[in-house]
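Thought: the user asked what Sulfurtransferase TusA family protein looks like in 3D. I have the sequence; next I should run the structure tool and report back without guessing.
Action: structure_tool
Action Input:
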Amino acid sequence: MKNRVIDCVLDVCPIPLIKAKLNYKKLTSGESVTIVTDHSCSCQNIKDAFSKMKASISIEEEMGIWYITITKE
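Observation:
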């Protein structure tokens, strides 16, 4: 299983969402992409965008940085 990490710190919305979608398309089942962002609004934007896809999302926050991991099922 492979995990891509995409640094989106200092990228404003909707750039983290766009990067998430572009990288998600490259994944195969079981792989994941982690978006690293300093914009809390990206968490909800990404959750909303991926809610209808076959993906699981986990979000962790550490000192104002969010790690949004999207795994393709």
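Thought: the tool returned a structure. Summarizing for the user.
Final Answer: Structure for Sulfurtransferase TusA family protein predicted. Strands lie at 3-7, 32-37, 55-62, 65-72. The CA atoms of residues 15 and 56 lie 20 Å apart.
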